[in-house]
Design brief:
This is DUF3027 domain-containing protein. The protein has 256 residues and is of the alpha+beta class. It is built from seven helices and nine strands; from the N terminus they run αββββαβααβααβββα. A four-stranded antiparallel β-sheet has the order 1-2-3-4, with helices on one face. Strand 3 (60-67) and strand 4 form a beta hairpin.
Length: 256
């Protein structure tokens, strides 16, 4: 917050002492610094600014607003602490809906989607991906006439946003586990292919031993649980020696 201090003396600038006295009575003398100036708010209304010496409030100012009527003692109108140009203030408010991140939802939590969410469009207007063009036309007609099927489906914006999010995250090629993988997911036998426009870039991992089991992964993602991974010979288990049959009997011992 920027504080603009007037250098023009109001009608009764002598009220600085009255402002300081009222401030000291309210917050104590230890927290009040020197007079910084004043702001003429309007006819007979003046705000006096004092430095704040309170711990943790560097750059803040005490603001004391007085009503100064001619011939009468100044009247205290407001006393507040305000941030200056160098004050440390809380970050800008972010609505709760925009602060939610993947993984924040707990069982029973509800996260409604706005009717105007750009990620979704009416199914009758766009079809139901990954149907082909003819099938999309049929879906649009059926949904329009009978109201059947999903009410909304992914828009182009919603699909692209999901693809960018997945590709840039832990399911993409830049993930540390993918950087050290011997092979990519596109050649893994555990990859389940998906239909539609995202099928060329993504699939679903079906390896129960892999970190990404049951998750969408990019074709150029990878991990050490690839179906074709093989251990180097030095890491393979050593073969067991041939078994030795003990043929020594009591009768044979007596001959020694």
């Amino acid at each position: 917050m920027s504080t603009q201090v007037s250098q023009t003396e109001p009608t009764a600038v002598g009220a600085v002492d009255a402002a300081r006295t009222a401030l000291v009575e309210e917050v104590g003398s230890a927290d009040v610094g020197g007079h910084l100036g004043h702001v003429v708010e309007g006819d007979a209304v003046v705000t006096y600014l004092f430095a704040c010496k309170r711990a943790g409030y560097v750059g803040w100012h005490w603001s004391v607003t007085l009503v100064e009527l001619p011939g009468e003692a100044p009247t205290i109108d407001e006393l507040v602490l305000i941030p200056g140009d160098e004050a440390i203030v809380a970050p800008a408010w972010v609505p709760y809906r925009e602060r939610i991140k993947p993984g924040d939802l707990s069982p029973g939590d509800l996260l409604p989607v706005s009717d105007e969410d750009p990620r979704l469009v009416p199914t009758y207007a766009f079809g139901d991906d990954p149907l082909d063009a003819d099938a999309k036309a049929q879906v649009r007609q059926v949904a329009q006439d009978l109201g059947l099927g999903r009410v909304r489906t992914l828009s182009v914006e919603g699909r692209d946003a999901a693809a960018q999010r997945w590709y840039a995250g832990q399911a993409g090629p830049a993930a540390p586990i993918a950087q050290s993988a011997p092979h990519h997911c596109h050649s893994c036998g555990f990859l389940l292919r998906i239909s539609g426009s995202l099928g060329e870039t993504f699939g679903v991992c079906a390896n129960g031993d892999a970190n990404d089991d049951g998750r969408v992964v990019s074709m150029d993602h990878g991990c050490g649980a690839h179906s074709e991974v093989r251990l180097a010979k030095k890491h393979e288990p050593q073969p067991l020696p041939e078994p030795v049959v003990d043929e020594l009997t009591l009768d044979l011992l007596e001959t020694f």
